[in-house]
Amino acid sequence: MIGAESHIITMAAEITLVLLTLAVFFTFIRLVIGPDPADRIVALDLVSILIVSYLAALSIYTGQKSFLDVAIAYALIAFLGTVALARFRERLAAQNRDENNREEE
To answer: Which residues of 1-19 are buried (b: 16+ CB within 10 A; e: fewer)?
Structure first.
């Protein structure tokens, strides 16, 4: 019975890895197409989440727990990167609003 459960887990991990790879591919298309910088930031964040998920599934598939450590570290760095990009985008939007208000006066 243990062999059958192991086979099912391996098969589920393989399917998960394939689906996550497809999701990353489609998200990269959204990242390139855009059209808005905010859409690109969200797509980049989604790619980060998908990579963390991929690393977790890879850890289950290979049985190596070190991939989970990498996933945790990557998630922390990706979160900080997303926050930094969002703050940068907000500052640019605020500068554009200030410039538009000056032109109207």
So the answer is: eeeeeeeeeeeebeebbee
Rg of the chain over Cα atoms, rounded to whole angstroms, equals 20
The values of phi and psi at residue 95, to 5°, are -65, -40
Does domain 2-104 fall into CATH 1.10.10? no
Closest CA to 83 of 53, 42, 52: 42
**Stated pTM of the model:** 0.81
Task: Region of 102 please: left (phi>0), alpha (psi -120 to 50) or beta.
Answer: alpha
**pLDDT (tens digit per residue) in 25-67:** 999 999 998 888 888 888 999 999 999 999 999 998 998 999 9
Q: Any idea where the domains of the chain sit in the sequence?
A: 2-104
Distances (CA, A) of 66 to 25, 60, 61: 25, 11, 12
Q: How far apart are CA 65 and CA 82, in angstroms?
A: 26
